[in-house]
Amino acid sequence: MAGYLVYFALGAAALTFLITRDVRSTISVVIVAGACGIAAGTPLAILGGLALWLLRLALAPASTLAGFRAWVLEECPVAPGRRAPQPSPGRPGRGRATVPRKATKTARFLSLVAERNGLLASIPLDRVAQINAALAPQVDLNPGAARTALRKAVLTARNGDPR
Asked: Torsions phi, psi of 83, nearest 5?
């Protein structure tokens, strides 16, 4: 019964808009014609959500479409009629859920410093700038950010943190 009330309210609203060309009168008809909240709330909520999404699409199209794509892939990761790829049993750790996240530039920089200079705790603070100047460009890291990260990592390592 409520479903028919929604159709009636939308039809009456469309007819009102065609006659008056007034959006306020159209919304008033939807609210008055629908005694229950379904008739007024559902169509207006859908239109409001769509309007906000279109506004966001107009203001930030790249991030909006990227977020939409991520949402679609999360909701439907495999196209209908296809099977999800199964990890091969001969290659442990190659499944989709166990793939590590790509390391950040800072993490790659600190790893390179540890590889070339040994433990971070053994690096003297007065050598941080020299090491930074030599290795930061290799990982395309901003020299200021690299110096700050390396100094912080050296001090943390000296205070007993194993990282």
From this structure: -105, 150
C-alpha R_g of the chain: 30
In this predicted structure, the answer to whether residue 12 has a pLDDT above a threshold of 50 is yes
Please enumerate in sequence order all residues whose Cβ is within 8 A of that of 38, keeping only pairs 6 or more positions apart, or say none. 2, 5, 6
Match 């920089």 to its residue by tokens.
109
Measuring CA to CA, which residue among 96, 6, 86, 85 is closest to residue 42?
6
> pLDDT tens for residues 141-154?
898 989 999 999 99
pTM for the whole structure: 0.39
Q: In angstroms, rounded to a whole number, what is the distance separating the alpha carbons of residues 87 and 144?
A: 42
Which residues, including other chains, have CB under 8 Å from residue 121's CB and lie 6 or more apart?
154, 157, 158
